[in-house]
Design a protein that fits this description.
CATH class: Alpha Beta
Largest sheet: 5 strands, mixed
Radius of gyration: 12 Å
Helix content: 25-40%
CATH architecture: 2-Layer Sandwich
Number of strands: 5
CATH superfamily: RelE-like
Number of helices: 3
Shape: globular
Structural class: alpha+beta
CATH topology: YaeB-like fold
Strand content: 25-35%
């Protein structure tokens, strides 16, 4: 799988707590080999994010991504659930 981070995503990840950065690395490895692993809770979003999908990074942090084509995704945003959807 090819993963393309946006500038916004990179900025948000750099400002995230170190524990989230560590968990992100673990989850992105899982995602790249098995995108629909049950740990990730990969699901389609609705509303203003209706063209995107989300996976769980921690209990509160989510990663929003866009499927460009089969095998390629663009990382859009990472933040807490309330910050993204609230």
């Amino acid at each position: 799988m090819i993963v393309i981070p946006t500038k916004n995503f990179e900025k948000k990840l750099s400002k995230s707590p170190s524990s989230v950065k560590i968990k992100f690395k673990e989850r992105i490895r899982i995602f790249m080999s098995e995108p629909h692993n049950i740990l990730l809770n990969n699901h389609k979003l609705h509303g203003k994010y209706n063209e995107y999908r989300s996976i769980n990074i921690t209990g509160n942090y989510r990663l929003i991504f866009e499927e460009i084509n089969t095998g390629t995704v663009r990382l859009i945003d990472i933040n807490t659930h309330p910050e993204l959807y609230g």
